[in-house]
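Study this:
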Amino acid sequence: MLILLPPSEGKTAAVRGKPLDLEDLRLPVLNPARAKVVDALVELCSTRPAEAVDVLGIPKTQPELVDANAHLAEAPTARADRIYTGVLYDALSPATLSPAAKRRATSRVMVTSSVFGLVGLADRIPAYRLSGDTTLPGIGGIQAHWRAHLGPGMTEALGDGLLVDLRSGTYAAFWRPEEVAARTATVRVLHEHNGQRKVVSHFNKATKGRLVRALLESGANPRTPTKLAEAFRDLGWTVETGPITKTGTQLDIVVAEI
């Protein structure tokens, strides 16, 4: 099973640690594509910082984000699960998982990254600022870049297991699971109130974090979307299963309280 997460917009920079070494990351097949993004981002931010503010959508009150990108190659690194922060990662709380669940997270969970394509939770990376919908000079559209290069890494990471795809729309465009749709589950969280259902962004992220945490702690290793739905139900969630589409089987997690 591979659980695929979106990155967080906010990141916690490492205070100390060795600099980035692409050879230490999982999925070395992605390293040429990773190096191109790192080089383009460093070049933009180190030589044209004013342009970088506009290109990267960085608030003018946070010029330190441009400087961080400019020094990406030599900045301190930390485990990805300490770099990525925000609602989903707070709810997942990797640091407080049981030892067995931490081992499962290390092998089964990966994060979609605009800079690195895919990273494991134990991969050491620096903090960076690059959204998935950016058009980066020297690279072009980040989504198009990874659509052209991410496939071999996804194939290696997934193997013959189930893909649990929790990416947001921006990062889902990096790679489409059409060839493995029969063993792909996408998860949507719906808040039901007074007979009406809607997606609430903040709560959607938090619930996805809790879902992943519960799944890792349970030790369940489903191999089909149907078995994944059963595992979530066994953990106390209300789940509705949709039809198989070209991007997989949609599982709706229906919750009554935010």
